[in-house]
Amino acid sequence: MNTKLTLTIDKSIIESAKKYARNKERSLSDLIENYLKALVNTESEKKDQVELSTTVKSLKGSFKMPKDFDEKEELANRLAEKYLL
Which Pfam families did the record assign (predicted)? Predict the structure, then answer.
């Protein structure tokens, strides 16, 4: 269901946005709606992600794991080695 929305935006921005929309053969409403969808989706994705520590961020990309690496199996093996052997 579509609902009407009133926005207050600088006139020059509106004119530029209308021109951009015309060049893309889309409506200004469609452009704004899609922008807001992308914005909301990006924010919800950020909430789902775990925040990495500075140390972990610095290590990111520093090594490559084999494609067949199974972290659950590796963890089980390490724990068995530590506690059972």
Answer: DUF6364
